[in-house]
Amino acid sequence: MDDQFTNTILKRLFKDVQTLLTIAYLVAVGIGMLFNYKKFILFDINVFDYAGLFDFLIAPFGDFMILLFTLGTILLTVLIYRVDVFWQKKHPSSYAKWMFNLDPGKWYTKQKLSMGILLFVLYLFLGADVYAKRYKRAMVNQDLIGVTYADNSRTEGILIGKTADYIFLLQGEEVKVVPMNALIKEIKLK
Question: Half-sphere exposure (CA, 13 Å, Cβ side) for 39?
């Protein structure tokens, strides 16, 4: 009887961990997509036109700063939620005063959730904007890279970024998209 109870608890915990990890990964992919979009859109590049599914699945892990932001965001969100629940359960009178005695109403729970989600989304967009602007400032000071084509012709520029199929170069004010295959030489955007 005790073994069956223990097995049930372990299965439930394992299932919850799988669900939490899946949700955390999907949030991380979303954050990576947002950050990559904001980074490339500063150069008038819609990265969704050039990136494949695999590029987005690894987006949170492709840049160390995005990875740190993603991990920090997930940990901060879980921490804030846990502190809120702990405070509400252990010190209800203090919590009620801090929340202006709004806690008992049913509407408060819905309002709290929707405001929390709204603040989370605004935080992500603000973080992505700050990241993109810092990336652009740092990127402009990088050294030129050279790309040699199959016909031995060469082009140089500052590396904006890359996907699995394309390299994005900045040449002065002009943005060039260099495909990784040998059939197309380059695509000019600006």
Answer: 25
- Name 67's Cβ contacts closer than 8 Å, sequence gap at least 6: 60, 61
Q: Which helix (H) or strand (E) holds 125?
A: helix 106-140
The region of weakest confidence among 125-129, 158-162, 181-185 is 181-185
User: CB–CB of 179/166 below 8 Å?
Assistant: yes
3-state secondary structure 155-166: EEEEEEEECCCE
How many C-beta neighbours within 10 Å does residue 56 have? 19
- pLDDT tens-place string over residues 142-164: 889 888 877 778 889 999 998 98
Q: Give the integer Cα–Cα distance in Å for 165 and 179.
A: 6
Token pair in block for residue 70: 């993603």
Residue 62 has pLDDT above 70, yes or no: yes
Q: How far, in Å, CA of 157 to CA of 146, rounded? A: 7
- Say how far apart CA 60 and CA 36 lie, in whole Å: 9
pTM across the whole model: 0.77
Closest CA to 68 of 121, 40, 31, 21: 31
- In single-letter form, the type of residue at position 39 comes to K
